[in-house]
Write a structure and sequence with these properties.
The chain is mainly alpha-helical. It has helices spanning 36-56, 63-82, 85-107; strands spanning 19-21, 24-26. The chain is built from 3 helices and 2 strands.
Amino acid sequence: MNTKDDIPESSNGITPNYVRVGNTLYHPTYTPKTGVTWYLKWFGTVITITGLTCRSMDIFVPYDLLLSLTGTISWLFVGILWNDRSLIVLNTVCSTILLSGVIRALTWGEIGI
């Protein structure tokens, strides 16, 4: 059984809050509500939703690729800053797929720069 003595102390000397469920201690999820990651995650969310909306309504094609790529790269940086492997893997794969689409669109002249 986990007791108060079993709770690890963080590297900065502050003991994080734990939630006890039965005999097990869980560290609650922490999402920052300020700072650069807060702005970066909401920027990425809004841009990704805008890109998906363009794609689903068949407007501004293929600029939806650029918007979605920008959003997934933003979320990739958030994942790196949070050290969240699932965000890193998901957004690395998405960014790679979208980047290949952007390169294809540039090669075929679908995006004029």
